[in-house]
Design brief:
Rossmann fold, about 500 residues, Dna Ligase, domain 1, 3 domains, D-amino Acid Aminotransferase, Chain A, domain 1, about 25% strand, alpha+beta, about 35% helix, binds adenosine-5'-diphosphate, 8-stranded antiparallel β-sheet
Length: about 500
C-alpha cells in the first residue's frame, strides 16, 4: 500500500500533524520541517525525521523554497505535501517540485497559477457557464476606469487583489467618494503582499452566505464532489465556524451548486483535492474563487462522508485512481468545526500567544480534535493564531450542536485567551441554532449583546475548571467574582 516512501510536510501546527497522521496510517515516513521558533512544536515531535528550515519570521523559513527542496532531496523524499497557507498555492514551488522530480501533493503548477489569479478564475468560471457577481471583466489598472465600473455595478462594491488570499487587500466601498482612495490603497497592499498590484471590483453583497464545494479529482478522469460546506461565521472575512452540510441547502440547489463546482474543476483540468467557493444570496449562488489546496475545514467533509481527504490526496498524487466513485460518496449526518484561536474575542480578536499552563482536550462520541499544542507549550507570536480545530458530528444538526456544546464544556485551555468562549456563545445563539447565518453574523447587534454575556459565563466556567484545587471555597470565589463581572457588563 505504500504510495510513497517518504513525504515531506512543508507546514507546521495542526495541519502538519493531520498530514503526518495520514502518512503513518499508510506506512509512509513523514519528514517535518521547523523554524527556530518551532523547536518545541508538536509536529516536530510527531514527524519521523525533522529538519530546521530557518529562523523565525521575518526570515523565510516555511517559505524558503530552495531550503525545503534541499531538505527533501537530502532526506530522499519522494513527495511534498504543502498543507494550507505558506507555499500551498505557490505555483513556483509546485514547479520546482516538478522539475526536481518530487511529487507535489496537489494540482499541477499550471493549474495553481491559473486558479491563483482571481481574475483568471472568474473568467474561467464564467466561460464554464457558472454564475459570477457583476464586476470588472479583468483587472483594473486605472482609477477612472474603476470609478466608472463601480458606478455601473452600483454601490456597495468590493475591491479585491487578484492574487489575494486571507482577506488581505479586500476593501468594501459604500460610496463613490471613497473609491479612488480605496483602489489606490488596494493596489498598494496587493503589490506589497502578493507582488502583483492587479485588483478587480465586484458587487458587494450585504448579507450573503459563504458556501463552498469540496472536489476531488484524479488523473484517470474521475471528477467528484464531496458535497458542500457552509462557512458564513467569520471575523474579518476569515472563517471561524464551518459546517457540513449547509443547513439551508435543498436538493435542487445542491445539485446545481455541486454541478457548477465540477464544471470549474473540469474546465481547469483539475487533479487532486480543491474547493470551489461561492457566495449565496436570495436563492442564487455566485462563484467567488477556487482554492487549489487542502482547506482548514476539510474535517467536516471527512466527518459527513467518511472519506479521508488527505489519504485520497496522497493516493491521487501517486498516480493511482481515487478510492470512490461519485455514487459511493454519500452524505451522513451533520458536522460542525469551531476554530480554536489564541485570541481575545472581547478585544477585537487580538492575538494572545503565550504559555498554555493547563490543557485538557475533549473526547467521547462524535468528537474530533485536530490540535498542534499541548500543556506547557508556548505558542510563538510569529504565526497564525489557530491552535486547534474542534469538530462535532452527529446524525442531525441539533444533536451536533448539543455535542459541540458538551465538547466545549470539556475543553480546558488556560494561560492564553481563546475563541472557545465565543464558540460556546454562538452554539447557544438562537439565530445560529435556526441556521440563520450570514457573513456578518458576528457584527449583528443582538448577536453581540448575547455573545458578551455568554463569553463571560464561559470564561467563568473555564476559570473554575482550571482551578487546580477544586475545594468549595475556591470555586465559590471564582463564581462570585465572575457573576459580578457579568453584572457589570450587562
Ligand atoms: P480571500 O481569498 O482573501 O480569503 P475571498 O474572495 O475568499 O477572499 O473572500 C473571503 C470572504 O470575503 C468571503 O467569505 C466573504 O465573507 C467576503 N466577500 C468576498 N467577496 C464578497 C462580495 N462580493 N460580497 C460580499 N462579501 C464578499
Amino acid at each position: 500500500m505504500a504510495y510513497f516512501n517518504k513525504i515531506l510536510v512543508a507546514n507546521r501546527g495542526e495541519i502538519a500533524i493531520r498530514i503526518m497522521r495520514a502518512c503513518r496510517e499508510f506506512g509512509i515516513d513523514s519528514i517535518g520541517i521547523y523554524s527556530s521558533a518551532d523547536k518545541n512544536a508538536f509536529h516536530v515531535n510527531y514527524a519521523d525525521e525533522a529538519f530546521l528550515v530557518g529562523e523565525a519570521p521575518p526570515t523565510k523559513s516555511y517559505l524558503n523554497i530552495d531550503r525545503i527542496i534541499d531538505i527533501a532531496k537530502n532526506a530522499d523524499t519522494d513527495a511534498i505535501h504543502p498543507g494550507y497557507g505558506f507555499l500551498s498555492e505557490n505555483a513556483e514551488f509546485a514547479r520546482r517540485c516538478e522539475e526536481e522530480d518530487i511529487t507535489f501533493i496537489g494540482p499541477s503548477s499550471r493549474t495553481i497559477e491559473m486558479m491563483g489569479s482571481k481574475v483568471a478564475s472568474r473568467d474561467l468560471a464564467k466561460n464554464a457557464g457558472v454564475p459570477i457577481l457583476p464586476g470588472t471583466p479583468g483587472a483594473v489598472t486605472d482609477v477612472d476606469e474603476a470609478i466608472s465600473i463601480a458606478e455601473h455595478i452600483g454601490y456597495p462594491v468590493i475591491i479585491k487583489a487578484s492574487a489575494g488570499g486571507g482577506g488581505i487587500g479586500m476593501q468594501v466601498v459604500e460610496h463613490p467618494d471613497m473609491i479612488e482612495e480605496a483602489v489606490n490603497g488596494a493596489m498598494r497592499i496587493a503589490a506589497s503582499a502578493f507582488g502583483d498590484s492587479a485588483v478587480f471590483i465586484e458587487k458587494y453583497l450585504t448579507r450573503p452566505r459563504h458556501i463552498e464545494v469540496q472536489v476531488l479529482c484524479d488523473d484517470h478522469g474521475n471528477q467528484t464532489h464531496l458535497f458542500e460546506r457552509e462557512c458564513s461565521i467569520q471575523r474579518r472575512h476569515q472563517k471561524l465556524i464551518e459546517e457540513a452540510p449547509c443547513p439551508i441547502m435543498d436538493d435542487v440547489t445542491r445539485e446545481k451548486i455541486t454541478k457548477a463546482a465540477l464544471k470549474v474543476a473540469e474546465k481547469s483540468n483539475y487533479v487532486n483535492a480543491g474547493t470551489v467557493e461561492f457566495l449565496y444570496s436570495k436563492g442564487k449562488f455566485y462563484f467567488m474563487e477556487m482554492n487549489t489546496r487542502l482547506q482548514v475545514e476539510h474535517t467536516v467533509t471527512e466527518l459527513i462522508t467518511g472519506i479521508d481527504i488527505v489519504g485520497e490526496q496522497i493516493i491521487v498524487a501517486s498516480g493511482k485512481e481515487m478510492s470512490y466513485s461519485q455514487d459511493e460518496i454519500t452524505l451522513r449526518g451533520h458536522a460542525i468545526e469551531c476554530r480554536v484561536n489564541a485570541e481575545d474575542p472581547l478585544n477585537n480578536f487580538a492575538a494572545d500567544p503565550g504559555k498554555i499552563t493547563l490543557y485538557r482536550s475533549p473526547g467521547g462520541p462524535g468528537i474530533r480534535v485536530d490540535s498542534g499544542v499541548y500543556q506547557g507549550y508556548t505558542i510563538p507570536p510569529n504565526y497564525d493564531s489557530m491552535i486547534a480545530k474542534l469538530c462535532a458530528w452527529d446524525m442531525s444538526r441539533d444533536h451536533a450542536i448539543g455535542r459541540m456544546r458538551r465538547a466545549i464544556s470539556e475543553y480546558v485551555i488556560a494561560g492564553v485567551k481563546t475563541t472557545l468562549p465565543l464558540h460556546h456563545a454562538i452554539m447557544h445563539n438562537q439565530h445560529y441554532i435556526n441556521g440563520d447565518t450570514h457573513t456578518h453574523f458576528l457584527q449583528e447587534e443582538d448577536v453581540q449583546r448575547t455573545l458578551k454575556r455568554y463569553i463571560l459565563e464561559e470564561e467563568a466556567r473555564m476559570a473554575h475548571l482550571a482551578t487546580p484545587l477544586r475545594d468549595g471555597k475556591k470555586v465559590a470565589a471564582v463564581v462570585a467574582g465572575v457573576t459580578a463581572l457579568i453584572a457589570k457588563n450587562q
